[in-house]
């Protein structure tokens, strides 16, 4: 589950080569709500639609319907999104849960069309957590969004689903990392020495951002090792099996994982 991000400029640093490439979004892109790794691609959910970050000065629009992409997540080759219809669209507002199996070129409505605006989504396997901005509640699905249940108020700034049995996840609340085995009916604190700004899981690995550093855990948060240090405070992270995207100020920094 990712927070809304507003970036005035986007840059990429490929850490394995320690080279810097400056880049800017198109002038028409007024708000970037989310940054998401998708295999070897970097996707941007924006007020003006879905974009791919390509290279210097190159944000390439994806698909023919530039709807307002609020929540955005991916699981392997499938994208999930929510938000608001584009100007002139005949679709009801908000868009509920949408799914794309062609990289965002086309989208299919799964559920809650006209009822829910998910400002953030977290997807893994058959599980989805969604922050319902319409009602101010956290929602959960164990069948990829076909049906949902409300599991409490919106009190977490980020969620990452853990591997293993359904219901295992970690979340952030006021900089503290919490762990659950039953979809947040009960949580326990995972102690850490600094306030945490973002959390992300990929497979059996767990990543957190704290101040200007990213830490990695291979035992679901029982122990941590420093992964990378950066030159500024980190606001968000996103991981795929290929790479980790780290948002620092108005930049997106890319660390290769393979």
Record keyword descriptors for this entry:
258 residues; mainly beta; 4-stranded antiparallel beta sheet; globular; Methylamine Dehydrogenase, Chain H
Describe the structure.
The protein is mainly β and about 260 residues long. The chain has a domain at about 10-155 and about 230-255: Methylamine Dehydrogenase, Chain H (7 Propeller). Helices cover about 0% and strands about 50% of the residues. The strands form 7 sheets. It has a 4-stranded antiparallel sheet with strand order 3-4-5-6, with no helix packed on it. The protein has a 4-stranded antiparallel sheet with strand order 7-8-9-10, with no helix packed on it. A hairpin with a 2-residue loop joins strand 19 and strand 20 (about 205-210). Residues about 5-30 have low confidence and may be disordered.
Tell how many strands the DSSP assignment holds. 25
Radius of gyration: 17 Å
How many helices does DSSP assign?
0
Could you say what the CATH architecture of the domain at 12-155 and 232-256 is?
7 Propeller
Helical content, roughly? under 10%
Question: What is the CATH T-level topology of the domain at 12-155 and 232-256?
Answer: Methylamine Dehydrogenase, Chain H
* N- and C-termini, Cα separation: 24 Å
CATH superfamily of the domain at 12-155 and 232-256: YVTN repeat-like/Quinoprotein amine dehydrogenase
Low-confidence segments, ≥5 residues, pLDDT <50? Answer: 4-28
- Main sheet properties: 4 strands, antiparallel
């Amino acid at each position: 589950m990712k927070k809304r991000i507003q970036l005035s400029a986007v840059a990429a640093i490929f850490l394995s080569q320690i080279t810097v490439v400056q880049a800017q979004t198109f002038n028409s892109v007024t708000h970037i709500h989310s940054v998401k790794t998708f295999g070897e691609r970097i996707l941007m959910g924006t007020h003006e639609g879905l974009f791919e970050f390509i290279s210097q000065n190159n944000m390439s629009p994806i698909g023919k319907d530039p709807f307002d992409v609020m929540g955005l997540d991916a699981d392997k080759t499938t994208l999930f999104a929510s938000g608001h219809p584009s100007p002139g669209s005949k679709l009801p507002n908000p868009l509920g849960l949408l799914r794309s199996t062609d990289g965002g070129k086309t989208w299919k409505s799964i559920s809650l069309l006209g009822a829910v605006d998910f400002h953030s989504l977290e997807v893994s396997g058959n599980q989805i957590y969604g922050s319902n901005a319409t009602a101010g509640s956290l929602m959960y699905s164990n069948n990829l969004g076909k049906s949902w249940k409300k599991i409490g108020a919106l009190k977490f700034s980020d969620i990452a689903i853990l591997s293993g049995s359904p219901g295992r996840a970690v979340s952030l609340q006021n900089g503290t990392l919490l762990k659950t085995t039953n979809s947040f009916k009960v949580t326990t604190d995972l102690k850490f020495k600094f306030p945490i700004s973002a959390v992300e899981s990929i497979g059996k690995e767990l990543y957190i951002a704290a101040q200007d550093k990213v830490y990695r855990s291979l035992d679901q948060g029982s122990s941590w090792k420093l992964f990378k240090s950066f030159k500024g405070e980190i606001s968000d992270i996103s991981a795929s099996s290929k790479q980790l995207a780290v948002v620092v100020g108005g930049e997106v920094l890319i660390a290769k994982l393979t």
